[in-house]
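dumping this here before i forget
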Amino acid sequence: KNFIVSFFMLVAVQSLASAQCPTIDGVTTVYAARTTHFIICQHPNSTATLGYLSDVGTLVEESFSFITVTRNFRLPPGTAVNPTDDTQREKIVVESRVTDDGYASTDASTPPIIRIDDNYEAAEGWRSTGTVALRASIVHEMFHASQQAYVDPLTVWKPVTMNWIWEGTSALIEDELPALDSVNTYLPAQDNY
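structure:
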């Protein structure tokens, strides 16, 4: 009897938590963890371990604090300093083979959704792999989310002529994060802009 009650309570909690995770390309993502400002969701195609998801949670909070407190940039739209419910928490989706290893939504998502790859051990085109590359992607995409508090990226920053400002400042913030200062993860991509 206790097993049945526990099972149904677990299903109810997972269903409630999953409801807070976004649908990506028609696929429902699943709740994995919650931090102070974020909900970490896992795409069904992801093979990320619990340790990797924990690293993601730690690094998104580190990046959020660096961008909004240390550097005093605006909060991403719809994100609260002290969230009172999950609608005020930004969503981080961990999945396999995200385009360019990371992506911040530029649609009307409030708060923005950040998509992060689940394997940085074989990161292509980076000067680093593993946690260093993961940290660089997270702070880069988090800065894109913060940029959206200043301007609508689809109407102002995304024209090809302005892409270097949009991407260049996000690449620069990677070098500003003290843990990445000497890594210079942005150098391989500098010729793209």
